[in-house]
Specification:
heterodimer, A: 149 residues, mainly alpha, 0% strand, rod-shaped, B: 181 residues, alpha/beta, Ribosomal Protein L13p, Chain: A, four-stranded parallel β-sheet, two-stranded antiparallel ribbon, 8 helices, 14% strand, Ribosomal_uL13 (chain B), ribonucleoprotein (chain B)
Amino acid sequence: MVFLTLSCWIRSRGPDRYWKVQEVLKHARHFRGRKNRCYSLAVRAVRRAFVYATKARKLKKRNMRTLWISRIAAATREHGMKYPALMHNLTKTSVQLNRRVICDLAVTEPRSFLSLAKLARARQQEGFRAALGDGKEPAGVFSRVVLLQ
Amino acid sequence: MSSFSRSAQQWATFARSWFLIDAKMQPPGKIATMCSVRLQGKHKPIYHALSDCGDHVVVINTKHIAFSGNKWEQKVYSSHTGYPGGFKQVTAAQLHLKDPKHLTIVKLAVYGMLPKNLHRRTMMQRLHIFPDDELPDDIRANLTEELPQPREIPRKLSEYTQEEIDAFPRLWTPPEDYKMK
């Protein structure tokens, strides 16, 4: 016998089991059913939740972009234009605002958004005049693109 | 407007408005797209699917709806009762005539154009369809805006004055022995 006294028979197996379990359960506290209390069920649910969270980081970017686009489309239709016309004409006038910024302007700064819509409409009219006209008319004010080198 | 308190501004932004659409001599599909856009709230820059930002839409004169082409005879509305041999097919004309309130065609069109989720039923509850010009007083009191009609109604020949008919340019002269109907 190796352990000759009673006190030597007492083992300390993993003194921090409570905290290891809490580390997992704290991520499961808002779940439904026994998954929020029982460790074996919670471990599986928490692993699934983390996998979904990882996959959703890419989806969030896509969803946010579609939301911005639908909001910008709604705002442009209020001003009598359509979203593709607005974006195309803004890129042609080298306005490099992304959809996130234009959406925020549409929501919080309506007059700035109106000025962007008017700019896009002016550029659109210049494009129509250039396409339908003879080519002898000079290019409009907004059609001149400045190339910075 | 920026002098109002934040809560008042929020109340004004998210308030639900009531739109009026006159469906006289209009194609029900075009009416339905306008309705579905406003029921979802997609006409607002503050749109979000979860924020319940849809508005109320009132459609009047649905008795005088006008399908283009031969759709009154060719468009078929199918349903199945669930029992064997219960497959029913009705043409649009039959459905419209059988309907005492003349709301099925517009209702089905809008129902099909809304997103297929649990919000659809609440959005349909916010759609109000009336076959005639008569509206209940409480709905009439709520209306805020009338939307322009999607289709320009062409004038009938009887609505043109004789001077306009005479002033119209002659497109071709018929030969001597041509028999007009």
